[in-house]
């Protein structure tokens, strides 16, 4: 660190206590330049081999980040990978020019990777061969430690006393060459990530939550890749307005056509055709291109060929036999929506109300978000189909069966036993 960085780091964790002399909060320091300058972007195999050797020889955890082009390109691929490790410095790697980073992933096997909001970056890192075996998630650590704001900028400022410039977070990272201000921003994102990790580890240890955090990090690192979402077209914004099966078929046809076009052109689907336009066409069921062009989202800027493409999708949906139309809803697994519980099973609704109140109170006592203490879905499932006996062993087994970590089972079981037992007595 520079002298200024060391001074600020000495006052770490200011948001959770440990105020400086006279309780005067020092002003945060703008972090304007990486301590070693902006490194060159690695875009060839020879330079990549040098980076791999340097990072393999480095020491301690490695800070890792990735930049995507969400809203600009199709999918969630990485367009820049940033790393920093003691003894190796900072590296900026172009995964378009170097699409296989499995060698780097292997060199860092067994090393703790420090990421912020790891679940956002791990899928695109996995695509290029980078999969951690150990990780520390600074955003999740902040949640478990009770920080009210857990964005990277807020955490770096609140914990380490530096201000990160965040003006380039939503730019088109597929741009080539990448402008120098963007590269500076990218390098600064990993500049203090290990320092933040070290400070948060101390705070979690002080609060008695370090082992909890380690279990959460292990669960993220060992989680399998998510299954592809079934019927992704059903998540079209505004879908709640579409009630008839024929209209649903139009949404499906337009969504799937848009997806093929977006993938072929490597462009964000929303830039091809907006969700609002898809829903508008489904509700209107236009008879021809002229009627389609009159709808919002299919205006005068759209060419005749494009309009014909969308009208063809509408026509395909209109011509489907009834047996091939989509069903109104997806098959439901697990409990029904909580709003329906009072009518379907009033006793289960009472269990859920008591359990939610108990978990909420415990989360407040532990100073962490309720969803990090235990997922709401797990609570719903236990309350909808409670174990035959509401004793601690049975409730703990049910929680573990739904994927709760050991620390969660230990903390949540006692309050759920009380809530379930109380409602069982009420039923009797």
From TrEMBL:
Catalytic EC class: hydrolase
Bias type Polar residues, positions: 1-15
Database matches in InterPro entries: 3'-5'_exonuclease_dom (IPR002562), Exo_C (IPR041605), HRDC-like_sf (IPR010997), HRDC_dom (IPR002121), HRDC_dom_sf (IPR044876), RNase_D-like (IPR051086), RNaseH-like_sf (IPR012337), RNaseH_sf (IPR036397)
EC numbers for this chain: 3.1.13.5
Renumbered residue ranges of the record's region Disordered: 1-36, 321-340
The UniProt record lists the keyword Hydrolase: yes
Disulfide bond among keywords: no
One Gene Ontology term of the molecular function aspect: ribonuclease D activity
Keywords assigned: Hydrolase
Domain HRDC stretches: 244-324
Identification of the protein by name: Ribonuclease D
Natural source organism: Streptomyces umbrinus
């Amino acid at each position: 660190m520079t002298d200024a960085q060391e001074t600020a780091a000495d006052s770490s964790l200011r948001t959770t206590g440990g105020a400086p002399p006279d309780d005067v909060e020092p002003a945060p320091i703008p972090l304007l330049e990486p301590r070693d300058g902006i490194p060159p972007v690695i875009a060839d195999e020879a330079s990549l081999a040098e980076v791999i050797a340097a990072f393999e020889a480095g020491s301690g955890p490695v800070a890792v980040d990735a930049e995507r082009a969400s809203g600009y390109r199709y999918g969630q691929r990485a367009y820049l990978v940033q790393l920093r490790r003691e003894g190796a410095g900072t590296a900026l790697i172009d995964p378009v020019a170097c699409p296989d980073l499995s060698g780097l992933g292997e060199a860092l096997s067994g090393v703790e990777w420090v990421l912020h909001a790891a679940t956002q970056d791990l899928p695109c890192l996995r695509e290029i061969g980078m999969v951690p075996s150990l990780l520390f998630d600074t955003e999740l650590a902040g949640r478990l430690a009770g920080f009210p704001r857990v964005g990277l900028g807020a955490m770096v400022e609140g914990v380490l006393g530096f201000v990160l410039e965040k003006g380039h977070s939503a730019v088109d990272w597929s741009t080539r060459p990448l402008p120098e201000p963007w590269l500076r921003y990218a390098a600064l994102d990993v500049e203090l990530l290990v320092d933040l990790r070290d400070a948060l580890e101390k705070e979690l240890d002080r609060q008695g939550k370090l082992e909890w955090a380690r279990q959460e990090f292990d669960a993220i690192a060992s989680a399998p890749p998510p299954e592809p979402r079934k019927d992704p077209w059903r998540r079209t914004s505004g879908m709640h307005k579409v009630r008839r099966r024929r209209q649903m078929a139009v949404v499906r046809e337009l969504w799937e056509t848009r997806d093929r076009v977006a993938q072929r052109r490597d462009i964000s689907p929303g830039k091809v055709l907006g969700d609002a336009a898809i829903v508008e066409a489904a509700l209107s069921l236009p008879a021809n291109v002229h009627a389609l062009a009159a709808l919002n989202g299919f205006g005068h800027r759209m060419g005749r060929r494009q309009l014909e493409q969308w009208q063809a999708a509408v026509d395909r949906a209109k011509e489907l036999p009834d047996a091939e139309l989509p069903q109104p809803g997806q098959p439901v697994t697990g409990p029904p929506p909580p709003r329906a519980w009072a009518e379907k099973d009033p006793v289960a609704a009472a269990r859920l109300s008591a359990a939610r109140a108990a978990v909420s109170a415990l989360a407040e006592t532990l100073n962490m978000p309720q969803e990090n203490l235990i997922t709401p879905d797990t609570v719903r499932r236990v309350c909808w189909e409670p174990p035959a006996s509401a004793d601690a062993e049975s409730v703990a087994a049910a929680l573990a069966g739904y994927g709760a970590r050991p620390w969660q089972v230990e903390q949540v079981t006692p309050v759920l036993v009380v809530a379930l037992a109380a409602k069982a007595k009420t039923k009797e």
